[in-house]
Amino acid sequence: MSAELNPEFSIWRKLKAYFKLVVLKQFVEEIVLRIGFFVWEYPPKLVGGLGTYAEYITREFVKQGHEVTVFTLNQGELKTHEDYNGVNVQRPIIADASNVFPMFVTEDLRRWGTNIRFFNDIFMYNALSASKFINQLIRKDDEQFDVVCVHDWLSSIAGIIVKNETKIPVVFHVHSTEWGRSGGQGSEVVTHLELMTAQMADRIITVSYAMRDDLVKHGWPEPKISVVWNGVDPEQYDSARYSQEEAQKIREKYNIGNDEPMLLFLGRLTWVKSVRNLIQAMPLVLEEYPKAKLVILGKGEEQKDVVETANRLGIGDNVAYRFEFVPEEERILHYAASDVCIFPSVYEPFGIVSLEAMSMAKPVIVGARGVVGFREQVISSGPDQNGIHVNGEDPADIAWGIKEVLKDPKKAKEWGENGRKRVLGYFTWEKVAEQTIQIYQSFEGE
Q1: 266 shares its domain with 123
Q2: Are residues 217 and 255 in the same domain?
Q3: In terms of Cα–Cα distance, which of 242, 296, 299 is closest to 264?
Q4: What is the mean pLDDT of the chain?
Q5: Does the structure show a pLDDT above 70 at 24?
C-alpha cells in the first residue's frame, strides 16, 4: 500500500502540518508586539530631542515588524488620526481649561502663572488620549496591546490612567527629570508626577548610566531601571551624501572663509546647554585662532543673553546666530560645513546632537561633568578617541578643548572618522529598537 493511501500516514501528516502551523503562529505572536506609545511631541510638531527620538524609534519598531499606535498633542491644527510612515498616530484635540486649574490645584501649580496654559495642554492631552486608548481602542474596538510606553512627565498622567484601568504593562521612558532641568528649583507637581509614575510603572527605561545613577540617587526603584542609549540614522547623517558645494553654501551664508575654522553649536538655548559659557570661552580661543567663527543654531530663553554676552565681550563679528527651528536636511548641512561641534552641557542625560555630529565624522567637544550622557558616547583618549571631554561650567576648559581640536587638523579628522565608526558599532536606531523590544518582551509569562 502506498504512503498516500495509508490512513495512518495521512493522519500523521495532517498532525505535523497542524503542529507546524501552531508553532509558526506562536513564533509570529512572539516577535510582533502591539505598542501603545504616548509622547507629547511627534512629527510634524517637533520641539527638541524627544520628538526626534519618537520619530525614529517608532519608525524602526514598524520596520522590525511591530505595530505602533502613537498618542500625541494636538492643539487643533493637526489631523486627529493618520498613518505616518506605518505608525498609527492619534491626536485628540485638546481644549482650554487653564482658568479652572487654579481653583483646586496646589500652590506650586498656581505659581506657573501664564505657563498654566502649558500644564493645561499637557493634562488635556494625557486625559483625552488615555480615555480614547482605553474606551475606544481597547473596549469598543477590541484592539489588543502588549505594552504601553510613556515618555517623561509629559505623558506620565496617561501612564497612570492606563495602569488604573487595564492590566497592560506600562514602561516609563525617562529622558530627563524636573530636578535636572531646573537645577533643583523645579515644580513640585512635576517632580511628584515623575516619582509616582516610576513607582507605578512595571519598568523604567532611561538613556544613560549617568542618568540611571541619578535616578537611584533620588530614590527611584533601581531593580526596575534599564539603560538603552539613543541612536542616529547613519544613512541620513553621512557626510558622503552631501557635496562640498552644499557645505560651502552654508559657510558662505555666515561669511566663513575656507581658512576660517567653523565652530558649531546646535541645540536649545537654555542654561543646561551652557551656551553662555561657550560664548565666554571664545575670547580665549580667538587669542590663538583669531579667524575662528562660532555658529549658534537654535532657539530658547537665553537668546538675548547670548547676543548681549557676545557684544559685551567684543566678539560679535566672530559669532553668528540662527534663532529658529531649522529643518533636518539643513541642520545636517551645518554639520557637514563645520570643522568641530561643541556641546558643553552641564545637564544632558543623553544628547542626540553629539551622535549626529559623530555620524557626520566630525570631532566633538562635550560637557562631561555631572549628569551628562555625552561621556558615554565620546571617547576622550586612546586609539579610538573621537573628541574631547570638558567641564561645561568652566569657559577656560571649553576654550582648551576647542584649541586642542584646532591645533591638529589631521588628528581632528581621525577623531571624526573614529566617531563615525563608533556610531555604526553602538548607536544605530536598529540597535536601540532591538534592545528596547527585548525589555518590552520581558513581560511575557509574568
Answers
A1: no
A2: no
A3: 296
A4: 91
A5: no
